[in-house]
Design brief:
The chain has 424 residues and is mostly helical. The protein has one domain. Helices cover 79% and strands 0% of the residues.
Length: 424
Amino acid sequence: MIVWLLLSLFVFIAMGIPIAFSIGLSSLLYLVASDIPLSLIAQRSVMGVFSYSFLAIPFFVLSGMIMERGGTTKRLMNLANSFVGHFKGGLAVVDIVVSMMFAALSGSGVGGTAAVGSIMIPSMKRKGYSGAFAAAVEGTSGVLASIIPPSLTIVIIGVTGGVSIGRMFFAGIIPGIICGLALIVVALIISRKRGYGGDEKSTWRARFSAMKHAILPLVNPIIILGGIFGGIFTVTEAAVVSVVYSLLLSMVIYREMNFKDLIEICIKTIRISCAILIIIAISSLFAWILTAERVPQRLTVFFSQVSPNKYVFFLYINLLLLLLGTFMESSALVLILIPTLLPVASAFGIDPVHFGIIFLINLTIGANTPPLGVTLMTGAKIAEVPFYSAAKEVIPFLGAMVVALLLFTVFPQIVLWLPNMVFG
């Protein structure tokens, strides 16, 4: 039955049916074939989203969109550009640095790509960078928002797998920075080889001015992580505080957003959040079926027979996720595979936080890999270049991220050092 369940899922996805409905249809076929009451669909779907922590998703989405509309992206870009924009390939570096800073505000890979890319990609093209290269830079750097906290994907992994979201937030900081630095190295090498220039060097007065204007937005992640670390509020409450702080900046201090903009942003937030929560709801039914069929236990036995140690297990998992990530949406993969694979990882003695971050980085690579590659596709649309052109340019950047992935796999201390230091 499980074979037919998975086969029907892949068939529905190949037919172009949206991922939530593909999961729902394959689950429906299983229930009908197994003579299980269809009322289970409603029951498991409601229970799937009946979690206080999931409230963080719409609030983090709302906070990121308010920051974007309220002029935060522009101020972060000016700050980064004032310090590194004059180097060869400087605008590419600015793009990556701004994406990393905005990642600490938005939590959404696609949202970060769209927000930063809409400003940086046209600027890069005007300075002589190829559109395909600009799309590749933005696609791979924008997805860092899924690693650097507050990440929506980390929230979903934490709730789905019963892993501490606070620990995973802190575990994502160092890997996110390392991935960003790896992308910067690749961008600089390619830019110097092609002769991509930068802007004029900024004066120290201009740098201090840019820093002064960007300091308030950069306080937001400090409030979020400091509040969680200090036990002042939960992750969900931190998301609410982030919204309030974003509104204060955008509507009171900067005054670049009005109530009409806020209504439009709230509508967009509802659309984005509903799409995510529908996938979560339907996938919880799929995950229940896998659990009922004892798939985690069977996989544990299988991997214990073919994997002599946890590193071979990680190799198999990385290959599996890199493959599935090319054509499946990240949230669906989390909701289907985390309940299945996390018990197997625990059987190999792997820390759940370490496994969650490795899982996450695989998803970020998949988000830039054809044929799906949602963030790369977003960058290509902004750059107005064919998707296949951006796909060629993204190869060295993905290579750098794969190297970083292997580094985090072999040396778990890189991932676990900060959360262990903070939480003990």
